[in-house]
Amino acid sequence: MDAPAPRIAAVPAPAPAVTPRMLPAANPYLAGRDDVVTTVSGQLRGGGTDGVTTAVLAGRAGVGKTALAVSIAHRIAPRFPDGQLYARLDDEHGDPVRAEAVLERLLRALGVPAAAGSRDELAARLRSTLAGRRVLMVLDGAVDEAQVLSLLPGSATCGVLVTSRHRLTGLSGAKVVELAELTIQHATELLIRLLGIARVSAEPAATYDLIDLCGGLPLALRIAGERLAARPHWSIAELTERLGDEQRHLDELSHGPLDVRPGIATACDRVGPSAQRLFRLLTLLDGPDFPTWVAGPLLGDPGHGAVDELETLVDAQLVDVGRRSGPGAHYRIPKLLRSYAQELLAREETPATRAAAVNRLLGAWLHLAEQAHSRAVGQSVPVVHGDAERWPLPAPLTDQLLRRPLEWFEAERAGVVRAVGQAAELGSAELCWDLAGTLAGLMQARDHLEDWRETHTTALAACRRTGDRRGEAVILHSLGTLDMVEQRYNEASGRLALALPAFEEIGEDKGRTLCLRSIAFLSRVGAGSPLGGRAMR
Fold first, then answer.
1. Which residues of the chain have pLDDT under 50?
2. Beta strand 84-88 with 136-142: parallel, antiparallel or unpaired?
3. Alpha-carbon distance 112 to 122, whole Å?
4. pLDDT by residue (tens digit) across 181-213?
5. CA distance 531 to 494
6. What pLDDT does 303 receive?
7. Measured by CB atoms within 10 angstroms of the end CB, which terminus of the chain is less buried, N or C?
């Protein structure tokens, strides 16, 4: 008797094709992104033969990546008739979502029954399901390239649009578009959409201030606009006044579910402790931008580690690369991020650690100024120095920065002039007058006489507050030299008449010699003897 034929398990019928329509509603308040819409829409055509087309919208928190991605996706949806997938790749705390969870969700949306499997198995199942289909995939809030790679379709008929705070340059063939803050014109357009043209045009100056206080970020502008729309009895100027309070700046940019602080906090939390510390210490700098090397003294790290941490902040969209001037790039912290960093500074750094960081920074400025003076004009313009502590940068870095010392000074002049004022504010009179006096020869060489007078007036006041006689004598002599350069010989005579006895009183021979040399010059030009002239203060 023949054995019974083996039973063959029934193969389940394939699930019917599902056309997902997962895109969130489009944001009606978009402005100033027409060029990006055109570029990205052109990239994501679908139906190609050279692999899946991918575009990345990169930018910091609040710059409008998600709103723009969703708007573009709705616009090009007809090119992808087999559906549009959407997935958030980070959770409400900003932490990355497991790739397996995202893959399972996308497969369910495509009608594939849930099934256990490894990430690679689920990714293969997704690629099989999408093969030959014209589907657009929007992946929102990607943390890194690895998170995206496991989710990509394998079919050239699909398109993928990714948003991320990182540039994701490791996605081969992807078109990366970095979103910047809105221009004044486009920010004004956004406010007009929220408030109406009559209300905006009635307060042009306040509108400009509001855009500035929002840092040009669409999220911040939308929050401000919606707060004003909800309070028609408020003027725009009233809100700008509230935003101008540094203690409440970010608190005022919250409205219902919209808030700028969580996005900034998430970006900050994703970098390491040393980068976070640099981020908050950078707010100690006085000025709109800063050179690369300041990272070293702020962190107290003379090696390459501090610069690496600065670049980490750039990659995390917490710091911008600004102008390139002299031998290196300059950086800047955007307004809202600076407000957040200042909150961290107040919470995490003691007055002592803040003062120590500023002193290291000012010591580095003094080191560079001293080296620049020595290399550019040292032999012809002697200087009396004090005992303030220098913070020397590594010799190779110093040589690189000061290859052309006068060009370096020109590029960094605004910063080093501010450093003189910061030293005075910190109460470091010796550092203040030494830095000012060291700069005088460089300022004379470049004919920056107003800066010479400004820095020395600041330093003289600092010396007199603290009773620093040597500093007072040095600055009086340098101001007398400035008077001679400007051919104001009577004023020069008066200052030298004060400086010479001060040098003699403290036994400063070099200063006394320089003072006598200046007095001799005045005698030659017929200005009379300073010792017999009226003392000028």
1. 1, 8-13, 533-537
2. parallel
3. 11
4. 999 999 999 999 999 999 999 999 999 999 999
5. 8
6. 86
7. N
CA distances, 514 to each of 22, 380, 413, 481, 501 (Å): 79, 12, 26, 10, 13
Angle between helices 351-376 and 429-446 (to 10 degrees): 30
How confident is the model at residue 530, as a pLDDT? 60
pTM: 0.89
Contact yes or no for 239/228 (Cβ under 8 A):
yes
Cα–Cα distance measured from residue 306 to residue 222, given in angstroms and rounded to the nearest whole number: 36
Amino acid at 418: R
Q: Report the pLDDT value the prediction gives residue 93, as an integer from 0 to 100.
A: 77
Q: Two tokens at 319?
A: 């710091």
Given a contact cutoff of 8 angstroms between Cβ atoms, the answer to whether 373 and 442 are in contact is: yes
CA distances from 359 to 331, 353, 356 (A): 21, 10, 5
CB 80 within 8 A of CB 136: yes
pLDDT score of 91: 85
∠ CA(195), CA(196), CA(200), 5° rounding? 80
CA distance to 399, 434, 451, per residue, from 415 (Å): 19, 16, 12
Residue 163: phi, psi to the nearest 5? -115, 145
Quote the tokens at residue 23: 């895109």
What are the structure tokens assigned to 431, written together?
């550092």
Long-range contacts of 70-75 (CB under 8 A, 24+ apart): 70/23, 70/24, 70/25, 70/26, 70/27, 70/138, 71/26, 71/27, 71/30, 71/37, 72/37, 72/40, 72/41, 72/44, 72/161, 73/23, 73/136, 73/138, 73/161, 74/23, 74/26, 75/37, 75/41
pLDDT score at 535: 40
Overall size of the chain counted in residues: 537
Helix, coil or strand: residue 254: strand
Provide DSSP, 318-374. SSEEEEEETTEEEEE--HHHHHHHHHHHHHH--HHHHHHHHHHHHHHHHHHHHHHHH
pLDDT of residue 345: 97
Per DSSP (E only), the strands in 109-257 are 136-142, 159-164, 175-178, 254-255
Tokens of 296: 């070293």
